[in-house]
């Protein structure tokens, strides 16, 4: 099979934030997974686990969303600042009913982002919070000068403001964020976002409007219609920089999603078919956005996505802790190829969630840490961050699947970085057919090439206390006169770099 690459046709810029992450006060994501406190025997810097932070740095986390999720619309930020001993204890009603001691709050979040070297994405509370609470949080975080909130921040030990790159105005307001209708949320959005002030014109805050659940196109339509309504179309564009979409996939729909590890080939085809549905989703939400915003000034922010399976047996059902197999890695690789190919509209993707929850890149157990197969996909795809998408197409495709779901065997995307290096990423969704790929460049003659592969059994996963079975390995790549040639085995994710 040939993969034609046209270096002359650059299709758009791949924002690094497409490879973003999401961290919520949910189960063992923040507490234990990331934050263990300064007095913990687990090595840490200012309370953040050193092993986890160091591993995350290797995948170049571009942005980290916090504090939720559903948690965001019940979070009152004031409870999480000031001396830890006097911070309020609360019940995490969404996730397991456990006590939240607020020891990880605003200051700790910015410390974490500082250690990771990533952009910040704070999600505000619309569901149960006031406009004043939200605007004061923004003032607390970003105002340099004299004001009640800036003074409070200084009193709490932080002289200079932080930079808030992205601010989400509510989360899933059609559900856990207040069960609102789109029209009601749109009105609230207009009002709340007014007070998300940018205090430093050199550091504008990118405001994200709460978007649809999966294929709820009506939500997108109504929210855009209401927020772009006449008579002030020019001003209205200023109300929204991004619109979110959430999309999860797993073995089945409904309350029983199926085991993360013990699943059949049919479950896999269902999951992969649903994962590939991301393409249609982006296309259809994007088509609605195009009607209002043909110049694509507003970003589509897929700020929650990933595989949602049943929790691991014996774990708290409210903690959503799941293992991660090669199936999840294939989903991650295919999803990133879709995001890359829609980089003209998709400006952010945040996998849910970074550590110890749904499709996490890292799992921890006490002092132990494992890297999931999805971690390796992030690592193999990191070269796309900030690169330019190139036109690419396959000469032919083969259909694979079962009686119900059929799909192309190879999913791909190609980009070129600022040094001219071309990155090809492919997923072979087939469970039994390898594919030889001959990549043909239109213009350049390659001088050097290297490849990396993640390959294993569909149900394989890395376990605590055992040698990892899934990790990145080198892949043989041959230089040809006009490109490169390599084999993509069944059930694998591949990266090839062409210099
Ligand atoms: O990621 C888990 C939950 O899924 C989030 O809190 C919520 O936004 C979504 O429904």
Automatic annotation (TrEMBL):
Transmembrane segments: none annotated. The keyword Hydrolase applies. One of its GO terms (biological process) is L-arabinose metabolic process. This is non-reducing end alpha-L-arabinofuranosidase. One of its GO terms (molecular function) is alpha-L-arabinofuranosidase activity. It catalyses: Hydrolysis of terminal non-reducing alpha-L-arabinofuranoside residues in alpha-L-arabinosides. Belongs to the glycosyl hydrolase 51 family. Residues 303-492 form the Alpha-L-arabinofuranosidase C-terminal domain. Its EC number is 3.2.1.55. It is an enzyme of class 3 (hydrolase). Keywords: Carbohydrate metabolism, Glycosidase, Hydrolase. Pathway: Glycan metabolism. Homohexamer; trimer of dimers. It comes from the Bacteria.
